[in-house]
Design brief:
Layout (H helix, E strand, L loop, with lengths): L1 E6 L10 H18 L7 H6 L3 H4 L8 E5 L4 E4 L5 H10 L9 E5 L5 H4 L14 E6 L4 H8 L15 E6 L6 E3 L2 E8 L5 E8 L2 E6 L7 H5 L2 H4 L4 E5 L4 H6 L8 H10 L4 E5 L7 H18 L6 E4 L5 E3 L1
Parallel strand pairs: 3-4, 4-5, 5-6, 10-11, 11-12, 12-13
Antiparallel strand pairs: 1-2, 1-14, 2-3, 7-8, 8-9, 9-10
The structure holds zinc ion (2 copies).
The site of one zinc ion has 8 residues, from helix 5.
């Protein structure tokens, strides 16, 4: 199965500002002067060894992640990242172009998880079928409300795609093609839901928008996260921010480390980056979580990775 990230930010989309862009250019030029780069042929090697914050940007779109095989596409959340996914689906550059049915599964209905939907192009095509899934019983009404004429010029119900709305129950496993999907409620204002997706002995867990108020709470999730190849984890804040924003419903990379180690997870994907965090700050947060892993869980071979737009894993 293939995992791909289309939007990795939390709360609100946060494009790279002109100041951030210029500061990256300046950093690259300073590095080039220091290393005496004068030939074009040196560029690839030079770029490859640049520090992360100069070489990339993690992206400014909000939550959207896909898990797919040749036959089925599961989309988790419709943050602004879903706009690019929609374009790629229509152009046939992503997923099997012969299949016109997609599954869109919501963790919850906060704006950063739904407000890309009006721009998800397949909704506007008559031959497309979209199966919507959520644990929130009123979610069909809420999605329609988002496109009420007071908020958006085109209503969701007027769009010619075939739309099916399915309300999920926690603990009721379901299958989409060869994927087995399980869910578990997370501690978040108005509740968010995590999903575990399994196929051919591989397991990915999508667990965003969650606050763990104590280790004992974290323990409740160990079985659900157990042996995941990849755990996608809400690491919006560092410890200081978490202390100041208690009850906002988010977590830290270090809490992710404890969750991942206790559940024997292979890769921890830091996700739902704070919209106020620069690329450099996100890298610093990852580095501090590696330090924490080495001190608290010496010998652990947990892999900690920052999720970024366009990142893919094939399992
Ligand atoms: Zn969110
Ligand atoms: Zn939320």
């Amino acid at each position: 199965m293939k995992l791909r990230f289309w939007g990795v930010r939390g709360s609100i989309n946060s494009p790279l500002s002109p100041e951030n862009y210029l500061s990256k250019i300046k950093g690259v030029l300073e590095q080039a002067v220091k290393e005496g780069i004068s030939e074009k042929t040196d560029l690839d090697h030079f770029i490859a060894q640049l520090p992360g914050e100069l070489k990339t940007t993690f992206g400014g779109n909000t939550s959207c992640v896909t898990i797919s095989d040749d036959r089925d596409l599961l989309i988790f959340d419709a943050g602004t990242g879903i706009r690019n996914l929609g374009s790629q689906l229509i152009s046939g550059n992503f997923f099997n172009p012969e299949i016109d049915e997609y599954n869109l599964i919501f963790s919850h209905l906060h704006l950063d998880h739904i407000n890309g939907l009006p721009f998800f192009t397949p909704v506007h095509f008559p031959g497309k079928k979209i199966r919507f899934f959520s644990h929130h019983e009123n979610f069909e009404k809420m999605l329609m409300l988002q496109q009420n004429s007071d908020f958006f010029p085109v209503s969701l119900e007027s769009r010619p795609s075939n739309k099916e709305f399915n309300v999920l129950k926690e603990g009721h496993d379901f299958s989409i093609g060869n994927f087995v999907v399980r869910s578990k409620k997370l501690n978040h204002p108005n509740s968010s839901y995590s999903y575990s997706v399994e196929k051919d002995g591989k397991k990915i867990v999508y667990a965003t928008d969650a606050e763990y108020t104590a280790n004992s709470v974290l323990d409740n999730y160990a079985d659900f996260y157990r042996n995941a190849d990849i755990l996608i984890f809400d690491s919006q804040y560092n410890f200081n921010e978490l202390a100041q924003r208690y009850s906002f419903g988010h977590s830290t990379a270090e809490i992710g480390v404890d969750a991942a180690v206790s559940a024997n997870v292979k890769k921890l994907l830091l996700f739902h980056h704070n919209h106020e965090s620069s690329d450099r700050k996100i890298i610093e947060m990852k580095n501090s979580s590696i330090k924490y892993l080495n001190e608290k869980h010496p010998g652990s071979d947990l892999d900690i990775i920052i999720s970024n737009e366009g990142m893919e894993f094939n399992l």
